[in-house]
Fold this protein.
Amino acid sequence: MPERVSVRVPATSANLGCAFDCAALALSLYLDLRVTPRADPDIKVTYRGVNPDRIPADESNLIASSIQKLLRRWGRERGFDLEIDNRIPVGVGLGSSAAAIVGSVAACHWLADRPLYDDELVSLATELEGHPDNVAAAWHGGFTVAIQEGEHVHAYSSPVPDLLHLVLVIPAYAVATEKARSVLPAQYSRADVVHNLQRAAALSAQLFSGKVDLHPGFFDDRLHQPYRGPLMPGLSEVLALKHPNLLGVCLSGAGPSILAFARSAPADVGEEICRILRENGVESHFSVLAPDNRGAKGWSVPA
Ligand code: HSE
C-alpha cells in the first residue's frame, strides 16, 4: 500500500443534445480526493467544497463506500482517511457521481497496486455508476464517445480545442437522474432516431476533426430534452434562444444545468440564459469554462 494517493477528476457534460447516452465532454471543474491508508479498519471522511448539504461525510459517502467495495472485492480491505475537495455541483447534470466513482476506482487501482487498462477502468466505473457516458469522459477527458457491449465499455476520445468557449449555467435546484429518466418514452419513431443519429454523427465528426465549426442545429434533440422540459422550467425557452454568439445550447446530462457553446463574448450568452430562466421563476448562475483535455489524473506517494 502506498503512503497516500491523490486523484483529480473533471466534471462532465453528457449528451450534448443529440448524443443521448452516447457521449460527454469533460470540463475544467474538478473533484480532488486524497486517500491515506490507516493502521486500523476505520474510515474517516472530511468534505470541503460545494453543496455540503447534499454530501454525507461518513462511511455512506459514495466515494468512501465505492473504495471500500472495491478493496473488499480485490481482497485488500482496510481503513483509510478520505479527504474530498469538490468543486463539481452535485445533482445538476455535471457528472458529480461519475467523477466520484472514477476517482474511487482510480484511487483503488493505486491503493491495491492493481493495473487496469483504460477500458477495464471505465467498464468497472460504469458497473458502479450505471451509465457509461460521464465516466468515460471523466477518465479520458475531451469529447468522449462510449459504447457499451454487455459489461464491457469501449471509449473513444478526442481533445477539444480550447478556443471553444463553454458557458455552463447552473440553476439553484437539483433533479435526480432517475427522475429525469423516468419521464422518457420506452420507444421512439424512426424519424426521431434518425434525426438524432444524423446530428450525433456530424457533431462527433466535427469534434474528432479538431473543428469548432459548430452551429445550433447540431445540438438539436428529439430523444430526451423535449420530455424533460416539463421538469425544468425555462428549458424549452433557453433551447429556442437565438444569439449571434451562440454556436449551440443543450441540457447538460440529465439536467437541470445547461451547456452553451459560444463563438465569442461568452458572458453575454450566460447572462441571456440566466435572464430567460429568471423570467421562468428559476434563479441560476453561470461560469465560463474551458474543456478539460487531460481526464482523471492520480499521484501515489510510496510508503
Ligand atoms: N445520459 C444520461 C441521461 C445521464 O441523460 O439520463 C448521464 O449518464
Q: What stands out?
A: Residues 14-15, 21, 131, 133-134, 177, 180-181, 224, 253-254 surround L-homoserine (CB under 6 Å).
